[in-house]
């Protein structure tokens, strides 16, 4: 069964091409060229151990026990085991890469850059397989998507073809047609996706429990990033035209992605009619001009997208595609995932985050729940070296030290945000945040340090970066004020 055959169509004799056996014969694999832009941010900073069998970036020789650059997504047992045996027969005993979980497929595709992804369609997983193919089509349109299954199962066959697969490999048919398709796939050079080269860095904040101040912290952080990235920060506009230009400029975007979203909009006193759900439904029309005009805008210029309460869960692949699109328009994205963001949404956006900050308070319960959250992140394929601990509402008088918490969780300690609930609530109840200019306020000072760290790491050349703009005397005065 072939919806869009991968074989070349030619009226003349077909040129001689390597057979499947030739393609699986031990041979050196050429190294992938380095990105032209040295500043390109990789989607992942470390490869999970299960994916180190065939590094995509190093010279090596493939032996008979090595895997081939195909990624297999199985159905649940026992059909999944049968599909793996069939694939081994198809490849003459050579193994494909196998995705251990649906949540790790996108991350493995980013790491391996396989020649194709083969998704098994079975009655037990037809809905999940359909959603996965749609996600792959949105996020990795350059990588072929093939279905494997039993052609006699008409619902699975139709679901696969409607989902957008390029071919359907029948488990009950002879092996020769499927081997020809796989030979053509392996003979082609792997496609490389360069869409992320100029994508904005993403900082994600989440917590294991509700009520830890994650959204309030994300709001202050996004506001301070906007202040640091805006070229007009600290300068007076010289003409009315500059106000119009500033209104169209896009620097920082805060996405409130929790199921019970809306807290960030309340804290920033920035309601808006265009929600995250609207952006998802209209993302084909969402260009830079629409982002500048439709998204909620804080007086500082910070843009905001909030998931409405009780919104329908997004279709697989939509959130990932939207974040990629917005990353082309803004300079920095801040994701507030809170404690109630659906796991499928986190599994889509967290693997592409530049840094993941876990917000925790000084309680044993919070440490226990955070440890469980870490296990979830590991199952999603989020690299451990991008996860850091942020202790919020820190009180030095408590015996549970932040350093001890970090040691228990085996995470680097990013920082301590002091306990300042009373002044925070006083400002929030007035419809505003703690002013960024109040550098003597302990909470503002702690958030400013986080914002300066992000500016120094991701935007070192920006004129709004305080560390680069301030002279030695100004830096000394800031330190003295802080003490």
Keywords:
alpha/beta, Rossmann fold, 8-stranded mixed beta sheet, 5-stranded parallel beta sheet, 2 domains, 483 residues, 39% helix
How are the SSEs placed, and which strands pair?
Blueprint: H1 20-23, E1 28-29, E2 60-61, E3 67-73, H2 79-90, E4 95-98, H3 105-112, E5 116-120, H4 126-139, E6 145-149, H5 154-163, E7 167-170, H6 175-187, E8 202-207, H7 214-229, H8 240-248, E9 252-256, H9 263-267, H10 276-281, H11 288-294, E10 296-297, E11 303-306, H12 318-327, E12 332-338, H13 343-349, E13 355-360, H14 364-379, E14 387-394, H15 402-409, E15 413-418, H16 421-429, H17 442-458, H18 466-469, H19 472-482
Parallel strand pairs: 3-4, 3-5, 5-6, 6-7, 8-12, 8-13, 9-11, 9-12, 13-14, 14-15
Antiparallel strand pairs: 1-2, 10-11
Helix pairs in contact: 4-5, 7-17
What is the CA-based Rg, rounded?
25 Å
Mean pLDDT: 78
* Termini separation: 72 Å
Rough shape? elongated
Task: Indicate the CATH architecture of the largest domain.
Answer: 3-Layer(aba) Sandwich
- State the total count of DSSP E strands: 15
Level-1 CATH class name of the largest domain: Alpha Beta
CATH topology of the largest domain: Rossmann fold
Estimated share of beta-strand residues: 15-25%
* Count of helical stretches: 19
Arrangement of strands in the largest sheet = 10-11-9-12-8-13-14-15
The computed structural class is alpha/beta
Ranges with pLDDT <50 over ≥5 residues? 2-15, 26-65, 234-243, 466-483
For the biggest sheet, the summary is: 8 strands, mixed
């Amino acid at each position: 069964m072939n919806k869009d055959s991968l074989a070349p169509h030619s009226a003349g004799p077909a040129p001689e091409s390597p057979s499947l056996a030739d393609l699986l014969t031990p041979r050196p694999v050429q190294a992938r060229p380095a990105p032209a832009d040295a500043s390109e941010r990789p989607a992942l900073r470390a490869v999970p151990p299960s994916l180190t069998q065939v590094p995509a970036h190093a010279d090596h020789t493939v032996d008979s026990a090595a895997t081939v650059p195909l990624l297999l997504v199985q159905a649940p047992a026992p059909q999944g085991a049968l599909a793996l045996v069939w694939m081994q027969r198809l490849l003459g005993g050579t193994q494909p890469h196998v995705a251990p979980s649906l949540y790790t497929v996108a991350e493995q595709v980013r790491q391996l850059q396989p020649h194709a992804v083969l998704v098994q369609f079975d009655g037990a997983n037809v809905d999940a397989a359909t959603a996965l193919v749609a996600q792959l089509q949105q996020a990795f349109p350059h990588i072929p998507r093939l279905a494997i299954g039993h052609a006699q199962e008409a619902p699975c066959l139709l679901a696969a073809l409607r989902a957008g697969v390029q071919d359907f490999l029948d488990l009950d048919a002879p092996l020769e047609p499927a081997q020809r398709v796989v030979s053509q796939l392996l003979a082609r050079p792997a496609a490389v996706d360069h869409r992320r080269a100029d994508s904005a860095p993403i900082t994600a904040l989440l917590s294991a429990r509700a009520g830890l101040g994650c959204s309030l912290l994300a709001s202050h952080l996004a506001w301070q990033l906007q202040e640091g990235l805006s070229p007009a920060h600290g300068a007076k506009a010289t003409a009315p035209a500059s106000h119009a230009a500033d209104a169209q400029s896009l620097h920082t975007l805060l996405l409130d992605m929790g199921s019970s979203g809306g807290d960030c909009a309340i804290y920033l006193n920035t309601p808006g009619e265009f929600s995250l759900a609207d952006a998802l439904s209209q993302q084909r029309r969402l260009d830079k001009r629409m982002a500048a005009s439709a998204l909620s805008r804080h007086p500082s210029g910070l843009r905001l997208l909030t998931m409405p309460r009780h919104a329908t869960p997004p279709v697989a692949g939509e959130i990932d595609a939207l974040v990629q699109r917005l990353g082309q328009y803004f300079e920095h994205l801040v994701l507030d995932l809170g404690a109630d963001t659906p796991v499928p949404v986190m599994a889509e956006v967290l693997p592409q985050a530049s840094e993941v900050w876990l917000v925790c308070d000084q309680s044993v319960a919070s440490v226990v729940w955070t440890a469980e959250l870490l296990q979830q992140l590991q199952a999603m394929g989020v690299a451990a070296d991008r996860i850091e601990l942020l202790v919020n509402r820190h009180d030095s008088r408590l015996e549970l030290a932040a350093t001890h918490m970090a040691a228990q969780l085996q995470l680097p300690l990013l920082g301590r945000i002091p306990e300042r609930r009373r002044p925070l609530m006083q400002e929030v109840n007035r419809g505003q945040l703690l002013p960024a200019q109040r550098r003597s306020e302990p909470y503002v000072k702690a958030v400013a340090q986080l914002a300066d760290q992000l500016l120094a790491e991701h935007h070192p050349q920006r004129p709004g970066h305080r560390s680069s703009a301030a002279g030695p005397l100004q830096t000394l005065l800031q330190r003295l004020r802080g003490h």
